[in-house]
Each structure stands twice: as C-alpha cells, then as structure tokens.
Design a protein that fits this description.
Layout (H helix, E strand, L loop, with lengths): L13 E4 L4 E10 L5 E8 L4 E5 L3 E4 L2 E4 L2 H28 L5 H55 L5 H38 L45
Parallel strand pairs: 1-6
Antiparallel strand pairs: 1-2, 2-3, 3-4, 5-6
Helix pairs in contact: 1-2, 1-3, 2-3
C-alpha cells in the first residue's frame, strides 16, 4: 500500500501489529538527505522506544500496522537463497559447455558460495527465532486456556456475573484468536525456511550401478539308484529215507 505524502501527519497515532495488538504510537521519523522517509520511531506501550524501517509499516488512513520482521525477513531468504543457487548452477552449466573459462567460473563460484553461506547462517538464526516464537505462543495459549477454564468455574458457582463473564470471555477468545494466528504464521515461516535450508544444496544423483547378472545355483538332482530285486530264498526240507 502506498505511503501518505506527508508521514508527519501520522505523529502521535497508534500503531498495532498484524494481529490487532497495540504496539505503541509514532513519535518521529528519520529521513534521508533527499527527503525520503527512512525510519519510524515508536514509543512502545510499556514506555520504551524502538525504531523500525519504514518498509515495516503500512499506512491505511488512520490505521498504522507494524509488519512482523520475522515474516518479512523470511520472505527475503526464501527468494534469495534459491535464486543464488540457481545462478551458481547456471554458471556450472556454462562452464560445462565451455562458454566461460574455468578461472572465471572459480572466481564467480567462490563468490556465490560466500553469499550462500552467509544467507544460510542468517536464515538459521531467523529459523531459531521463529521456533522460539512458536514456543512462546504455545505457552501463552496454554495460560489462556486455563484462564477460560477458571472463568467458567467462577461463573458457574455464581462468583462472576453474567455481564462480566461475557465481556471477559469475549476478550479471552479474541486474545486466543490473535495468538493462534501468530503461531500459525510462525509455523509457516519455520516450514518455509526449513525447506529452503534443506533444499538449497544440489542433490547429487545416486550412482547407477552396473546391472549384475544373477547366477542361480541349482542343487544337483540325484536320481535314486535302482536297487536289485531281493533274491528269492527257497528253503528245501530234506526228507529222510524213512519217509520214503
């Protein structure tokens, strides 16, 4: 969304985050020598001050929104890392086709590797921040769930009036919704960064092994030998002469 022509009209106006939570209010702006707005100075709700790049703020009439730094930085990494890797691969292809000398390839390849290495380190730091944010949201959601439970109990036994119960319940539900939305965004960031960090390196094809002939060893079949028929034994009873 385009910025107002005179951002100084936003001085003193409230700033909220993407989930509708109050951040603070605009105190001042810093500009470049050419007059371009560069930085916004914000007084936080707890009295502290912070400065944010002007690109992190969106202006929609009286509504000023501070965009999540984690989401915007993650978007940059998810674009830059695959882009640099593709350029490095294209450089290798040109070298393989002998369109550029090896010395030039080595120089540019080294530069690409240096940039990629730094991008990976920064992306890993941001990934850790996203995971910490997810843990924080989970802890907050757990506390909010117990808050709803105790509110229900106190209302059930008559210690909390119906009007107070409805107002408190609506506030808790809105807080839970905001926290859940933030957690979902952080999980999306974690997933995208993890995929980029795991997928930015070239995947080497698995070596193709030569086809091996399978030799089947057959056990020799032994035919049963033909045994001779058992001899027939004839017993002859000797007859004595007296019997003639």
């Amino acid at each position: 969304m385009s910025q107002p022509s005179n951002l100084f009209l936003s001085l003193g106006k409230p700033v909220k985050d993407e989930y509708g939570r109050s951040v603070g209010k605009i105190i001042s702006f810093a500009t470049t020598p050419s007059g371009k707005f560069d930085t916004a100075f914000i007084e936080l709700s707890d009295g502290r001050f912070t400065k944010q790049p002007i690109e992190s703020l969106t202006f929609n009439g009286a509504d000023i929104t501070l965009i999540s730094q984690i989401k915007s930085r993650a978007s940059v990494f998810c674009d830059q890392i695959p882009f640099i890797w593709r350029k490095d691969q294209a450089l290798k292809d040109l070298t393989d086709k002998k369109k550029i000398p090896p010395s030039m390839y080595q120089e540019l390849h080294s530069n690409f590797n240096t940039v990629l290495s730094q991008l990976r380190k920064d992306a890993q730091i941001l990934l850790d921040e996203a995971m910490q944010g997810i843990t924080r949201c989970e802890e907050e959601l757990s506390v909010l769930s117990y808050s709803v439970l105790h509110l229900e109990l106190e209302h059930e036994i008559g210690k909390v009036s119906d009007d107070t119960y409805r107002a408190s319940f609506a506030t808790l539900q809105e807080t839970i919704r905001r926290c859940s939305n933030e957690k979902n965004d952080l999980e999306s960031v974690r997933s995208k960064l993890s995929n980029v960090l795991l997928g930015d390196a070239p995947k080497m094809p698995e070596p193709k092994l030569p086809e091996q002939k399978t030799t089947v060893y057959m056990e020799p079949v032994i035919e049963p030998a033909e045994l001779p028929e058992p001899p027939v034994v004839v017993y002859v009873k000797e007859v004595g002469k007296a019997g003639i």
